[in-house]
Amino acid sequence: MAPSTSEYNRKRNFDITAEPRDEDNPRRRKAKGAMSFVIQKHDARRLHYDFRLELDGTLKSWAVPKGPSLDPGEKRLAVQVEDHPLAYGSFEGSIPEGQYGAGDVIVWDRGEWQADGDAAEGYAAGKLKFELRGEKLRGHWTLVRTRLQGHSDKPQWLLIKERDDQARDIADYDVTAAEPDSVLSDKTLPRLGQGKQTKASTRSTSPKPPARRAKARKAELPETLEAQLATLVDSPPAGDWLYEVKYDGYRLLAHIEGGEVRLFTRSGNDWTERLPEQARALAALGLDNAWLDGEIVVNDGQGVSSFQALQNAFETGKATRIAYYLFDMPYLNGADLREVPVEQRRELLGKLLEDSNDSDLLCFSAAFEVPADRILASACELGLEGVIGKRLGSPYRSRRNKDWIKLKCAHRQEFIIVGYTPPKGGRQHLGALLVALHDEQGELHYAGKVGTGFTAAMLKQLHGRFQPLIVERPPVVDPPKGAAYREVTWLKPEQLCEIAYAEMTQDRIVRQGVFHGLRDDKPAREIGLEEATPAREAEAARHSASRRPSAGKQRDATVAGVRISHPERVIDDASGARKLDVAGYYAAVADWLLPHLADRPVALVRTPEGIAGEQIFQKHKQTLAIPHIRELDPALDPGHAPLMVIDSREALIGAAQMGTVELHTWNATADRIERPDRFILDLDPDPTLPWSRMVEATELVLTLLDELELQAFVKTSGGRGVHLVVPLDRRQDWEIVKAFAQAAAQHLANTLPKLFAAKMGAQNRQGRIFVDYLRNRHGATTVSAFSLRARPHLGVSVPIAREELSTLEASDQWRFDSLLPRLEALKDDPWAGYAKVRQGLTAARRKRLGVE
After folding, report:
1. What is the pTM of this model?
2. Which residue among the candidates 246, 408, 621, 738 is catalytic per the annotation?
């Protein structure tokens, strides 16, 4: 008899475990077409993998001790266990001690599966042949029941990979070792549980690496190489990592060929002539050809790298003081090492330097020998900028990804603006801000310059704001000297700004400052250097504060002149984002966002008590007193209160003050509201589908639009899907535009029925992607570009260039606290040219889709 989910419920105490309860549902759907599958990595008494296939409304489940193998010769034992509810497919977390299956669980892979023939019949007969379409496992597989008797009465099966183009020899590639982590989160095993000692914290940061067996391959040395970049994280993740110093210098790639050495910065500039001694030291290693990766630094008296000292070395011509710390070797003597695990590449590099290097200018970047849970604290105590973590077993990738991470000893606080420098190059209005802090005696001291973090519009706004504050003499007791400061425009010390910075020098000069916005919520006389509170004192203060009643006690804040009440109210528990953070986000992205809102009716998703509470969808202002918002002519929407428009930074922040998280807009502007100026296809996937299917689907829809000669622009939804935005010339009315979008959706569903659906409803979307054309009706709205989403972690709907699609990792890849670095790094607007597109739904285009 097949195991049942009643047995699942019987084995668990749901007052203790967070696993989902199986709610008996007599209307469970039968197996039909593609269904979901999930593989959960389970660190219980023994690490194993739970293989689950959706069938007859449940997840048929097998415990696979060694995990799946892509090698057809590896027949993996699969012990059948009780059926699990469908909701279990997204479960990650810790099952408490004393409970059935106690241990940690992550979703190692998930996607859809398709049986060869009738799934129920194959399962009952004990031989189930099927295709997997997951993020890690794809291709054809077989589950076959054996007559073997194990240590219990549980049926034993074999999980076998069929021979196809997805099969791989286990000696060359072990998928469980090569890809150990969750596909839902950043979690890995062992162990993710809270409140117990983790395996990561009981070992040094150089543990036994995973058994990844990728080998070097012969290859010609490429002329150029882009560096692998690290992703900023806020704490050390679980799993097996090595940690190195985050050097405070310049990244440098060394190209060696035929004894000739060339040194390149990350941006591709040739610095060989600036570093001749370092180039000669590299040539003396005697390599035929290689690419080496590292950082050039100058260490201070305490052995800590100092960016200021490095700058001085270049300015004084003393390049012989500059050390080149090497930490990776992607190519060596005709071999491409990029697929070789990072720890093996580093071992080769370390041995090379030990055997062949006689120069003090070349150094090996050694790993920390500190427990993972102390790694950042140790780095900060040493005065380092931070640490770089590298996942053991990972390859070298010429892009930013999560196999390399960085943890920074960062700082952020308010400063007083006391002046600005003139603009240079292509910048207008002003160059950098000069900032200051009060000392303990109340005197105002110069604290450095900040020249990054601004948009062009922000520079213009700041320049106008500063004009009434101009004074002739510097307001600080120790104004900076030198030619660079002769053209400073000095200001009354009244305006505050918030700055994130890498470090404060001994002279209390801020370095690597980034402007994060103006502040009006504190008097300038109170602003001094914020000293860190000892941990025990901070913890005591936190407990003391938690015992005090908070109602009515929070001080209001001000963002861009708009008052924010209850600024500390938590909007999103997952990220800890506060109401003030939401307002600050919208202030920071206003110059990018406002063009997408211009003269366009807007609807708000308000979450006054946070996204876990009631979410209010509001299309009309009604009696809500939203600061600075503009109302449209009531005749545009007869029978209702006036529609709203947000057309200023103040109105945008005012909406945030009233609890707004999401902004949704019409497909028409107020001046011609009956003639849409765009249509949108919203690709909304079944949550069980892997992201790779989402990317594939988006490219197919773009191909259809290309065939119709319609230019489309891509943006993430910030949730699960993708939006394709097609600008129009405003010649057709709502009915024609909606009919065209519906015909496009239906064409996709008819042509690729296993991938696309054109009907609403979860039952129609199972294993497929719903092409939502209903966004194109009169009065319908779609979340705006650069809007936050009222979902855990506050993802953002982000415009992307079409060529970025293949590198996208998720729809909520950018969130409220990670989008600004992307915007600051952009060289071109991903939607450049949108406003110049002139195209319409011509009769010929409508005829091709069968639209009357």
Report:
1. 0.47
2. 246
